[in-house]
Amino acid sequence: MNNKIIIAALVLAFAPLTLAEFVTVSRAYELEPELVHIPLSPASSMLFRNCEECAPTSGQLTANTRFSVDGNAVDFEEFCDAMRLAKQSELAGIFLLHHLESNEIESVSVAL
Q1: Cβ atoms within 10 Å of 66's Cβ, excluding its own
Q2: pLDDT in tens, 35-69
Q3: Of 23, 66, 77, 107, which is least surrounded by CB within 10 A?
Q4: Within a domain: residue 71?
Q5: Is 5 part of a structural domain of the chain?
Q6: DSSP 19-84
Q7: Confidence (pTM)
Q8: Cα–Cα nearest to 85, from 51, 110, 52
Q9: Domain count, the chain
């Protein structure tokens, strides 16, 4: 009986912690290649739209931005080459991770 009372008291004591508010820090996008503009440099902005009717969104590329093609890490030039190929393919996709507070692009991946 005493154990049940102790457990109930602990559950009630920690209940406010379970009601904590969640904050979205980063947003992931799965984009069609034609909705993503190829960036000019590894330190430029990257412009993309989530849908054809959606307003453009931009995020800043930084030295910490990770680029990959088909799951393999690549440098910026290889990434841009893959983006050009993706724009010619109906099956390609772009996966982008955008940090909302800093407006930085954390990673961009091309699936050919």
Answers
A1: 13
A2: 999 999 999 999 999 999 999 999 999 999 999 99
A3: 23
A4: yes
A5: no
A6: TPPP---EEEEEE-GGGBPPPSSTTSEEEE-SSTTSPPEEEE--TT-EEEETTEE--HHHHHHHHH
A7: 0.79
A8: 110
A9: 1
